[in-house]
Specification:
It is built from 13 helices and 14 strands. By secondary structure, the chain is of the alpha/beta class. The strands form four sheets. The protein has a seven-stranded mixed beta sheet, sandwiched between helices. The protein has a three-stranded antiparallel beta sheet with strand order 7-6-12, with no helix packed on it. Helix 3 runs parallel beside helix 9, helix 4 packs parallel to helix 5 and helix 10 packs parallel to helix 13. The protein starts with 7 loop residues before the first helix and ends with a helix. The structure holds pyridoxal-5'-phosphate (PLP). Pyridoxal-5'-phosphate binds next to helix 4 and helix 5.
């Protein structure tokens, strides 16, 4: 058997007619860039999250950049983000001219917690930028209190956490502004690049909407210099067609996660994702930890089971940041985790047979190890 890491074709096949019609509608009407299909998706996604506004844009990296820029983050500022995240989080900060400051992560949640963020605060700190990594909500209540007490902005990166909740409330309700990616492999994925920013702040939403579209509301009247960071109509149409299925897909991910949790509990030195009461994870990834990570990954590969590592090199140790002269000293937890984490296959359409096969393959590994 082969178990892929994710299976976008299975999802497409399950809603082929809706997707094909949505795309054909764009082509037949030659509707290509930021029109009524994008607007309909923006409205639908805002409603899904329970926030006042969603502004669509070209990708998740732009979403973070747009939010930071619209809030006035720029040269001379520092923005605190976790050391373990995709580089887009820090790239968006650098693009504003501000300095990304990479905090260590919490050993249990893998997210930047209050203690880790607070340790990085300096007089130049302008914003906190937590990431809801793997679909696990970061401690927004604690981080909001920290931001308020220090007079900092709070922008959340929810590129992996569409629909995650804390205490029954969507994470987008619990931060002033939350950024999404709709990259094809994300929990809600377009058929190309796309992103969005969610906020209850109408004035902020308007600034972001103008910034992504050449600083304008009217066709040839530009209030300021913006950029071209718009969403394509085909992406808007695909996302609008997919949105009604997102709740089911999230349930599917939770079903897979529950099966893994049950099957893999107490196996060797394997550490499973810690479920914190009240935090509703959306399991973009199911990440386990073991000292035998590379051997386990190799074993699974020979059995036809695909895995990934998210992420193998913490940001401060990336060649891209060599000029900052950082070392592993400031981020001991992130560094230790980077050598231990392994992402198992995770997608809503995973069959019981596939889950069973992954489970048996992991069992076989640990029985061999013992
Ligand atoms: C995917 C991702 C992004 C960037 O999104 P793109 O749409 O690929 O630009 C940002 N942050 C995190 C945590 C991501 O996983």
């Amino acid at each position: 058997m082969n178990v892929p890491f994710l299976d976008l074709k299975a999802q497409y096949r399950s809603i082929k007619n809706e997707i094909d019609e949505a795309i054909a509608d764009c082509v037949e009407n030659t509707a290509f860039v930021q029109g009524k299909r994008v607007a309909a998706f923006e409205e639908g996604f805002a409603k899904y999250l329970g926030v006042g506004h969603c502004v669509g844009c070209a990708n998740g990296t732009d979403a973070i950049y747009l939010a930071l820029r619209a809030l006035g983050v720029g040269p001379g500022d520092e923005v605190i983000l976790p050391a373990n995240t995709f580089i887009a989080t820090s790239e968006a900060v650098s693009l504003t001219g501000a300095m990304p400051v990479m905090a260590d992560v919490d050993p249990v949640t893998n997210n930047m917690g209050v203690a880790q963020a607070e340790a990085c605060i300096t007089p130049k700190t302008k914003a906190l930028l937590p990431v809801h990594l793997y679909g696990m909500p970061a401690d927004l209540e604690g981080l909001s209190r920290l931001a308020a007490s220090k007079g900092l902005l709070l922008v959340a990166d929810a590129a992996q956490a569409h629909g995650a909740k804390i205490g029954g409330k969507d994470i987008a309700k619990l931060a002033p502004v939350t950024c999404y990616s709709f990259f094809p492999g994300k929990n809600l994925g377009a058929f190309g690049d796309a992103g969005g920013v969610a906020t209850d702040d109408a004035a902020l939403a308007e600034r972001i909407a103008m910034l992504r579209n050449h600083g304008r509301k009217d066709k040839y009247l530009h209030q300021f210099e913006g950029l071209n960071m718009r969403m394509d109509e085909i992406q808007g149409a695909v996302l609008r067609a997919k949105l009604p299925h997102l709740r089911n897909w999230t349930e599917g991910r939770r079903r897979v996660a529950a099966a893994y949790q049950q099957a893999l509990a107490g196996l060797g030195d394997l550490v499973l994702p810690h479920v914190i009461p009240g935090r509703e994870e959306v399991y973009h990834l199911f990440v386990v930890e073991t000292a035998h990570r590379d051997a386990l990954a190799a074993h699974l590969k020979t059995r036809g089971v695909a895995t990934g590592v998210h992420y193998p090199v913490p940001l401060p140790l990336q060649p891209a940041y060599a000029h900052l002269g950082l070392d592993a000293g400031g981020i001991p937890v992130a560094v230790a985790k980077a050598g231990r984490i392994l992402s198992l296959p995770m997608f809503p359409e995973m069959s019981s047979a596939q889950i069973e096969y992954v489970k048996d393959s992991i069992l076989g590994f640990f029985e061999g190890e013992a």
